[in-house]
């Protein structure tokens, strides 16, 4: 006999005239659940067809990069880093982690340093972006680029474009009196100390460990530590 055909305990009661099998009980229970469930009208509609990511509508974006106006058509999901590297072929800004954790993609957007991998390109409509290519040229280096060369502030160089863009912005931040996490007095002009520089540059990771030389380079451009 199939196990489900064994008499249910209730059917074995001497008071029960009807001998139900376990299978009968299970069938009756399932039917009851189905009858008491939500009607079809109450159930959420099944999700519609997913949009095809290859045929998403494109969006027009106009911005200035390194002083040059650009207008491009973009998928709305494109990051600023991918716009720079894949659409404008400015490959100086590096993709290290693509998660906002290494700083290799740092660029200056409207005067502020940002991680380009974390910023959607469309947010920069009408904006102005400066990458490492826009700071100086091989013939006429930006003072920060020249200081990195002088102080040997790199080894493999992968982090260097982001380090330099960040360092340029850091010097501007300190000169503007913007305090950092290690500033002792939030109302006083921050000191240009090694601790300040290390704190402010902490979002730019150098896997080669060129940190001390990087600090030397920034210090020289900033006019010496206090
Ligand atoms: Fe943007 Fe690492 S690539 S922070
Ligand atoms: Fe190699 Fe910084 S110089 S990661």
From TrEMBL:
UniProt key word Metal-binding: yes
Biased composition (Pro residues): 44-54
Superkingdom to which the source organism belongs: Bacteria
Subcellular location as annotated: Periplasm
Annotated ranges, domain 2Fe-2S ferredoxin-type: 59-135
Listed GO MF terms: 2 iron, 2 sulfur cluster binding; carboxylate reductase activity; metal ion binding
Its biological purpose: Oxidizes aldehydes to the corresponding carboxylic acids with a preference for aromatic aldehydes. It might play a role in the detoxification of aldehydes to avoid cell damage.
Subunit structure: Heterotrimer composed of PaoA, PaoB and PaoC.
Annotated protein name in UniProt: Aldehyde oxidoreductase iron-sulfur-binding subunit PaoA
Organism of origin: Pseudorhodoferax soli
